[in-house]
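Case 323 in the screening queue. Each case pairs one protein sequence with one candidate compound; here the compound is (2R)-2,3-dihydroxypropanoic acid. For every case the pipeline is the same: read the inputs, emit a complex structure as tokens, and attach any notable structural observations.

Predict complex for case 323.
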Amino acid sequence: MTRPRILVTRRWPSAVEAVLSERFDVVLNTSDAALDPGQLREALLTFDAVLPTVSDRLPSTLFEGDAIRTKILGNFGVGFNHIDIAAAKAKGIVVTNTPGVLTDCTADIAMLLLLSVARRGGEGERELRAGQWSGWRPTHLIGTKVTGKTVGIIGFGRIGRAFAQRCHFGFGMDVVFYNRSAIDPMEAARYGAMQLPTIEEVLAVSDFVSLHCPGGAENRHLMNADRFAAMKRQAFLINTARGDVVDEAALIAALEQGIIRGAGLDVYETEPSVPERLKAMENVVLLPHLGSATEETRTAMGMKVVDNITAFFAGREPPDRVV
Ligand code: DGY
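Case 323 output:
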């Protein structure tokens, strides 16, 4: 029996690439160079499965015409707003993602950003490496105490809950959250958290606001100029969700005008480009989309994709089908 032809769009952890090579007729991307739209289109025409990731763009134009060969997109990543799901569905293409395995590591990165921006870790490291640290003094790089502060979480899914747990039980913070659907108060209490009815009510009481909702049309620019104005003046924004959840221009204005005190960001509106005005601000901590970047998690994500496409080509339901 001929083995399905599979294309992997970027370099993956070697353990996962080894399993893929055993099971499928696989083309790996050993150079790790991003594929351009023409190459992605060609992939859809010539491979049974394409395994893209969150930095590949698959708009509806790539799915046009009758010659599409791809039957499944096994996405490496939990977010899938980079794929035009309606267009894939119209072509009968199954799309899967990798939920569950990146919860802890993404919550850890949100915590890292919160602590770094509150305690001015980035500024301190830059100063020390530049040879400009003149020694301990009582007023040097004074930050914001975290313990006892209120954190507001937007989106109380797996990662929002894991982050709440860290904030409350690890750092003694009060936790409030907004979630579109109602969460059983007993369930919320397991994470030391309390649901509030609106985003505005969360913003009004939070010293730190952390985003944990999906990207895409439904949440595009959820954080806009009005919502920055609704935050406490000394508050910080943390974003490990998706860049498009924040109106980046409005965020820059809010930071420059002192409407909020600082931000910790792992994701951006047009990655990998990051506005120079953000980079110029000392009260902003910027990471290059590292939420899931641990050996354990990236391998687990890859193995989830393997499970999904293995099930699909064996005629079984893929465990993480999103469409
Ligand atoms: C995802 O899986 O969507 C993450 O953004 C990758 O870290």
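Case 323 observations:
- The chain has a mean pLDDT of 98.
- Residues 6 and 49 are 5 Å apart (CA to CA).
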